[in-house]
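Hi V.,

Quick status before I head out on leave. The structure for the redesign project is tokenized and pasted below; the design run finished overnight.
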């Protein structure tokens, strides 16, 4: 890259001004953009803008030519890619289609927040309100769409930042240096001829060398999981600050609950909850005479009573009910639990409940689904009427129905499919 110093200076000034305007006019998005430093990129690799979740790389000629409001949009676009963790969510998906899906998702969010999308922004109306994961399967393999920016998240992606720097090393015979070229020195300026000093993460993907020059430390770009958690924290902090200042738009108030609520590993949480109930401790009670005369500590294990209720109102599929039954079957055997299973939609299943000892396999009767409305009061009335006093009641439901006016005296664990809320007990979000 051999851009003139004047062009680079103008580009940095324009970027800084666009970000400052974002902070003033839209503090939620603006504060997220502050976590990304600016780094000048080689036009051969970066035609417009790019991000690696640590910096915004830019083409100085593009920055100078683009309209100021459009530049604000694209800076917000880069910040949202990072805040939503798109760099950590691709998994097995094809990168080109994933990039297109991410652009559609981000652009719809920005438009709903009042931004005016520039010409050429990917913005199919049918994708409004969908996440990148929901959009991805709707993108055809033969799509001609391209993401506006470069998503340089993948270290194994030869089209990304790491691949580009590797090509420079092969071509120039040395590492791509982040410092500006000096007078009389050939080579390239690399992906960061100039950079914005702001980066509170301390992870600008660079390191200091003994000779005073700085290399892009691509091989040690950091733990993607740790970076994802960092961006989740930044998203939560930005939302909280904007809300307290009364500057968080209604569109974000509706969206952020779902964005910030983690998809919890419900199986692990269910197991942890049940194991905590199983009272295991060492005892010095005298053992049976056949075990000998020695009085040694031994592990005493007590049985617990579990009540599991299946919501059969129609929102829970038979496959999901089967998976839940299999999970209960495995757990009750490990903690020596007696399990009582019942089903309910707007009323209790006529042929329930079903009881299983610790050694019995949990098999649900065929045609257990009810398909009516949803009421939870019949279940708690039944437990009280039959005097069951469970150690734990587990309710598998969408949480959309009529609840009792008062919570019961025993613990309740709600495994919730969807966004329904519960008035008491502990709520676990199903993946």
């Amino acid at each position: 890259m051999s851009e003139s110093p004047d062009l680079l200076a103008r580009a940095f000034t324009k970027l800084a001004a666009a970000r400052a305007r974002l902070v003033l006019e839209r503090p939620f998005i603006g504060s997220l953009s502050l976590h990304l430093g600016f780094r000048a990129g080689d036009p051969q690799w970066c035609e417009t803008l790019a991000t690696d979740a640590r910096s915004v790389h830019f083409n100085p000629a593009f920055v100078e030519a683009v309209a100021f409001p459009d530049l604000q949009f694209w800076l917000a676009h880069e910040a949202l890619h990072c805040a939503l963790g798109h760099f950590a969510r691709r998994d097995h998906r094809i990168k080109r289609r994933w990039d297109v899906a991410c652009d559609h998702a981000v652009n719809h969010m920005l438009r709903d927040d009042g931004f005016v999308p520039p010409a050429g922004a990917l913005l199919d109306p049918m994708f409004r309100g969908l996440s990148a994961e929901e959009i991805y399967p709707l993108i055809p393999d033969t799509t001609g769409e391209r993401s506006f920016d470069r998503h340089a998240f993948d270290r194994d992606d030869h089209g990304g930042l790491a691949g580009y720097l590797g090509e420079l090393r092969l071509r120039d015979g040395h590492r791509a240096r982040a410092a500006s070229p000096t007078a009389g020195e050939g080579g390239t300026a690399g992906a960061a001829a100039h950079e914005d000093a702001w980066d509170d993460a301390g992870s600008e993907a660079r390191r200091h060398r003994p000779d005073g020059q700085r290399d892009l430390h691509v091989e040690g770009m950091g733990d993607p999981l740790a970076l994802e958690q960092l961006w989740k924290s930044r998203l939560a902090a930005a939302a909280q600050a904007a809300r307290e200042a009364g500057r968080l738009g209604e569109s974000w108030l509706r969206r952020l609950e779902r964005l910030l609520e983690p998809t919890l590993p419900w199986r692990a949480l269910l197991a942890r909850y049940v194991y905590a109930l199983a009272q295991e401790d060492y005892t010095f009670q005298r053992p049976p005479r056949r075990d000998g005369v020695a009085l040694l500590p031994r592990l005493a294990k007590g049985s617990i009573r579990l009540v599991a209720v299946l919501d059969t109102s129609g929102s829970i599929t038979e496959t999901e009910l089967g998976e839940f039954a299999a999970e209960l079957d495995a757990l009750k055997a490990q903690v020596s639990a007696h399990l009582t299973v019942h089903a309910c939609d707007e009323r209790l299943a006529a042929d329930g409940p079903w009881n299983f000892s610790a050694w019995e396999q949990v098999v649900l009767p065929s045609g257990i689904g009810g398909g009516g409305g949803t009421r939870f009061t019949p279940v708690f009335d039944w437990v009280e009427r039959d005097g069951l006093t469970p150690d734990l009641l587990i309710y598998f439901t969408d949480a959309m129905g009529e609840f009792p006016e008062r919570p019961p005296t025993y613990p309740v664990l709600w495994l919730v499919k969807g966004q329904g809320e519960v008035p008491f007990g502990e709520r676990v979000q199903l993946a």
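Above is the designed sequence. The CA atoms of residues 47 and 103 lie 16 Å apart.

G. will cover questions while I'm gone.

Best,
W.
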